[in-house]
Structure formats: C-alpha cells, structure tokens
Amino acid sequence: MQLAHRITRPLRLSLFNGRPYFNPLAQLFHLLLAEEALSVERTYSFFCSSRTPANALLPVVTKPLVDAYTHCPLCGSPDYASQQDGTRHCRACDHRDFNNPITAVAALILDPQDRLLLIRRAKDPAKGLLAMPGGFVDPGESLEQAIHREIAEEIGLALTGIRYLCSHPNDYTYRGLTRPVCDVFFQARATSFNVVLQREEVADWQLRPLGEIAPAELAFDSMRHALATLRARP
Ligand SMILES: [Zn+2]
Fold first, then answer.
1. Does the pTM exceed 0.85?
2. Are residues 47 and 153 in the same domain?
3. Are residues 91 and 148 in the same domain?
4. Residues by chain with Cβ below 5 Å of ion ligand 1
5. What's the whole-number mean pLDDT along residues 163-191?
6. Which of 12, 9, 8, 30 is nearest to 21 (CA)?
C-alpha cells in the first residue's frame, strides 16, 4: 500500500521557459523514488551526481519536507498518512506534524543617501538574483540576535537603528526538499559600509536607490513585498 502511495504521489517539476520540463531521466527519478530501499535524499544525490554542464537543464524534483518521511519520526510506524490539510498523522501513536514554518530574518539596510544595500546570491535557490542579506534563525536565538549575527557573518557589517518592517510567507528548497518559511524583515542602518563578503553565499553587493530596483531583480516574493512596504513607509 505504501509503495503504491509513493508511486502515485504527485511530484513537482521545475519549469523551463514557463513549461513543466520532463524527460526520460525524470521518469527514472520517479522509479528510484518509488523503491523502498532508496531514501529521497539518496535518490536526489544520485540524480545530482549525474548532472553535468551538458544536462544542467534537467528538471529538479522537489517535494515538501512534511511528505519526505516514510515513517513516523516519533514511533517509527509506517502508518504515517498525509492529511487533506497538509499535516501528517501517525495512526499508531497519534503524533501529528503540523508542517510549521521555520523562521528567517533579513535586513533592509539604508545608507545615508537612503540607498538600499542588496547582495547577489552566489547559491541556489535564486542564484544570481538580488536579495536583502539575512538567513535562518538558529535554535535559542531571538530575531534581533539572528539579524545581527547573519549580517555580521554575511557582509561583515554592524547594524544600528533596527526597526521591524514586515513579514511574509516563503518557502525554501534545499536538496529537493521544500520547507515553509516565515521571512521577517527589519529596516536598519549600518555603522559603516566596509563590506566583507562571505564568498560562499554572496557573489557581490551594491547600493541602489529604492525607486530604481525592479521587483523582478529580487530573489523571492517575500522580498518584493518587503521592498514595497519600505517604499510605502513615510
Ligand atoms: Zn508514531
């Protein structure tokens, strides 16, 4: 029953030129994923290891993290069913995974001329697009601690005058698994603009007048929402 469930479970394929992109390797991925012996991560690793410049346009299959577990993480039962409301429920021990979002923070840092500091992402998701610097909140951190740490790590700046701006739902796909995220945005100033980039995460940076940033240049919808909120703020 479980194998049948996995074979028929819908998978999301990435879009290429606005259309779902499908080829025989994607079908192979389906079959590997259906094998009980292969975990999603191992299947995805196999798939990625076959990616070369020649097949770089092959589809990337993603699935929600809540659907990735084949057994209940609490008692180990395979009787761990997806529910209509997007949760998972274990009929053996009554455990329920509500698929709650993880939290991320980002800063809209303005210089003395009210230009916005943007970074260019060096990694997927959204590699090459512009973003506000930030990252995920660590266990035990407050939002304020997280934004100071992330900005120091990512671009080497110290923030002042932090004000809450807005929040927006997002999702984040890593190695084929998609997690729901709540992005929290702060408006801030910096004590200097002596930027030191974390090269694995950030390709370069720039200061842009708020009115000259096209929404399509930004990596995520949540960042487009934050930019619009900042522009509308008196
Ligand atoms: Zn259980």
1. no
2. no
3. no
4. 72, 74-75, 77, 90, 92-93, 95
5. 92
6. 12
